[in-house]
Specification:
The chain is α/β, with parallel strands linked by helices and about 325 residues long. It has 13 helices and eleven strands. Strand 3 and strand 4 form a beta hairpin. Helix 4 crosses helix 7 and helix 10 packs antiparallel against helix 11. It starts with 5 loop residues before the first strand and ends with a helix.
């Protein structure tokens, strides 16, 4: 079958994007770009045949956003014809960009700096960062975090999990994708329902999730020698409750009952199960990737489905 259109990711620097543009011009085919996290939600819609608007929760490490920043902790209202970003994790600088993805301790430094300000150095010392990484290296990363040229802004849920893993001393460096987050999940234990305090800042029906209080409380627990499995579980519980509260707020405003969860972060079975249980208890209809993995392997399905449905409706643009 000959293609009738070409779809690609929004990121202008991807090899696949460049190929799509060249191939579209060569074949005189319509060309469409689909934002990364919207495609994640589109993949869930495809698997379940959803064509009406859903509340999309797309959590992963990194994806190119419409504002040029790195997205990854996103709340969307998504439909066939487009999406509205209605909430996000607060932006945090990634010191050194790709270097922070390889070395989560750098992201941890950035989160502590955001939470503690002028006290960041002493608070990082409290959790052993000077011993593990050296005072000079930590101070250099703090300086780099203050430079937008050297530290892109990220709302990535995966980056937050990385940072907490490094703060606990579980994994300072990723030798494979998701290593720090996987190690953090491995610490979780059942029968703990404690959570950390999180702030949901709302303005004009838009929610920004601020984790500064979570970081401060987590450092306090580390100083008190709280067992790491307890801290890790409290953190996971906090994320599940954050999703629940944000989705509840969006539902109250829109009346939408269908929720789609996607993105590599939802390969975390503890987080996924707890999130589904709490959303279902609120009467939400929860949909997840079942035939495809929730990581980036599902992106092309979401892209294809959204454009196919637009073409069927005659609304493709």
């Amino acid at each position: 079958m000959d293609p009738v259109a070409i779809v690609h990711d929004l990121h202008p620097g991807y090899l696949s994007t460049r190929w799509a543009v060249e191939e579209g011009a060569k074949r005189s085919l319509p060309l469409f770009s689909i934002q990364h996290h919207y495609a994640h939600i589109g993949s869930v819609m495809a698997e379940h045949g959803l064509t009406e608007k859903v509340i999309g929760v797309a959590f992963d490490g990194t994806g190119y956003g419409t504002d040029g920043n790195l997205w990854g902790g996103e709340f969307l209202i998504a439909g066939i014809d487009g999406f509205e970003r209605t909430g996000q994790f607060k932006y945090i600088p990634l010191p050194g960009g790709e270097a922070a993805i390889r070395e989560p301790w750098r992201t941890a430094v950035s989160y502590v700096a955001d939470a503690e300000g002028a006290q960041a150095v002493s608070r990082l010392a409290d959790i052993g960062f000077m011993e593990r990484h050296g005072k000079t290296s930590v101070e250099q990363v703090l300086k780099i975090a203050g430079s937008r040229d050297l530290s892109p802004l990220s709302s990535g849920a995966g980056r937050l999990f990385d940072a907490v893993s490094a703060m606990l001393g579980v994994c300072d460096r990723n030798t494979f994708e998701g290593e720090a987050a996987i190690a953090l999940e491995a610490l979780t234990i059942e029968d703990i329902n404690d959570e950390y305090p999180v702030v949901l800042k709302q303005e004009n029906e838009y929610t920004v999730v601020d984790f500064r209080d979570v970081i401060r409380a987590l450092i306090d627990d580390l100083k008190k020698n709280e067992p790491k499995p307890v801290i890790a579980t409290r953190f996971h519980n906090t994320i599940a409750s954050t999703i629940r509260l944000t989705v509840k707020s969006i539902h109250k405003r829109t009346g939408i009952l269908d929720v789609a969860l996607s993105g590599g972060t939802f390969q975390n079975t503890y987080l996924l199960a707890r999130t589904i249980a709490r959303l279902s208890a609120d009467g939400m209809r929860v949909h997840i990737n079942t035939q495809m993995p929730s990581n980036d392997a599902c992106i092309s399905l979401g892209q294809a489905y959204l454009i196919r449905e637009r073409l069927k409706k005659g609304t493709a643009r």
